Every structure is written in structure tokens, then in C-alpha cells.
Amino acid sequence: MTKRLYRSEKDVMIFGICGGLAEYFGIDPVILRVAAVIATIATGVIPFTVGYFICYVIVPQDISYAKVVKK
Length: 71
What we know:
Layout lengths: L16 H9 L3 H15 L1 H14 L13
Helix pairs in contact: 1-2, 2-3
């Protein structure tokens, strides 16, 4: 079984990108979130924000952890 990159449904702060990357690489999502903040400061707010939004559009959502809708 191959590993696939998905946006996380269970570890979401903004769009689930850092949570999904953390699940893919098997590390703590806090580390990736701190790295994202540092990258935002280092590159400027606009370039990283645009890149993050592109990841939001390209990376599919994880549907294996779907929320149960009660009727």
C-alpha cells in the first residue's frame, strides 16, 4: 500500500495542510506549524500564503475520517 498525501480531517487548524503533511511524514504537526510560521516570516506573508492556498486547492481532502452527520 502506498502512502498518499491528503489534507487532514482530524488535525485541522486552518485547512489541514500541516496536519496532512505530519501524518504523511509521521511527525508531530506542531513542528510543521512552527516551520510554517518561520517560513511565512522568512519569505514574506504573501508568497507563503499563496503557496499554502495552492496546496489547499491541489491536495485532496482525506475522506476516510469523514464526519458523521446526524439526522
